[in-house]
Amino acid sequence: MKSVVLLHALGLDSTMWEAQHRALESAGHQVIAPDQRGFGTTALGSVPPSLDTVADDLARLLDERGVESTVLVGASMGAYVAMAFLRRHGDRVHALGLLSARARADDARAKAARTAFAARVVEPETGPAFVAAMTPGLVGATTRATRPRVVAAVRTAAATARPEALAWAQRAIAGRPSSLDVLRAADLPAVVIAGAEDELVPPEHTREVAEALPAGRLLVVPGAGHLPSLEPRTW
Q: pTM here?
């Protein structure tokens, strides 16, 4: 039996992996799909924003479950946490899956955009409308046009996320270092998954992630945007 960790995207929680959770458990794997710090049932706490903190949260959870090493899968924010975990606890990862993420650190423009997001999302009067306006970009054009239940589910999840958790996570992501060195040193089975219609992470960035991994393999999901684990689902 293999242990598989599933790390969710920004604004969502562990329920985004329900289909994969069921399939993996049915195949006999132990599945750990935590709500990351501030999301779902997990408290945010008062520590400064850092993906290293979230990676260490996961290390403690694995200790509690008696898991020495795992297949580590992360989507978007979850992928950034996975790369931080690989940097800090690389000996505990024996296979890797990264969805919809960059390996490079944010440039000044991207950092400014995340900081602005963090400031706007906590505004009581305008924050909810801001989140609602940003949410459709998480999915691709095909999903928006043909999969209304997926769009509705993502909207509901994002609307119920705590504003302070969204702000904390964006600041943590903005402060992350480049992970290209970590990926190049990760000689383990790895798959990088991208949505063909991802409007947030350009294909050249996803390709760079796959090419940095010595055993990396790139898979592109047609008709999906930034959340390929959710979008192809039949509703």
A: 0.96
